[in-house]
Amino acid sequence: MPDAQPRTEPPAFVPRTRSRQGRTEIFDVLRRRWVCLTPEEGVRQYFVHCLTGQLGYPPALLANEVSLMVGGVRRRCDTLLYHPRSVRPRMVVEYKAPGVAISQQTFIQIQSYNNVLRADYLTVTNGRQTFCCHMDYRTMQATFLERVPCYDDLA
Q: Which pLDDT score, from 0 to 100, does residue 4 have?
């Protein structure tokens, strides 16, 4: 769940899972397909659930595992929120497994993606800790927010 102080209780999260060929899979509602349930994937699915169910983010504007080129190398951004009237990214989200600490390296990673994307918000979470910052490109400053904003509150 986002570190945001929720305005209501977080929505119940009952993921669709199945066992297939000896591994557990979870249904990704954004990609509309089954994916291997890793600790990081569990964080992704829960966080997307919170974004859409608690914070009002439209699922149609979210995408998981978006491919991009960073320094000539193909990378995949965990989740993007797009602007409703353009294909411009509004928020980049980077996930880590619950046992992985969010470090300076995590912020370097998401910033390298954002050098290409130029999103307004950067969010990193491991399911236990969540950090969100707003990027002001006029001043080239990042301001850390107390919580992940509701969709209607995005600047």
A: 44
Tokens for 84?
Answer: 């409703």
| Separation of alpha carbons 57 and 50, rounded Å | 9
DSSP 63: E
Distance CA(71)–CA(56), nearest Å, equals: 34
Domains delineated in the chain: 17-153 (3.90.1570.30)
pLDDT, residue 11, reads: 62
pTM confidence score: 0.89
CA neighbours closer than 13 Å in the CB half-sphere of residue 64:
22
How far apart (Å, rounded) are the C-alpha atoms in residues 15 and 107? 28
What CA–CA distance (Å, rounded) separates 50 from 52?
A: 5
Parallel, antiparallel or unpaired: strands 73-82 and 130-136: unpaired
For 11-34, what is each residue's pLDDT tens digit? 678 899 999 999 999 999 999 999
Helix H or strand E segment including 115: helix 104-117
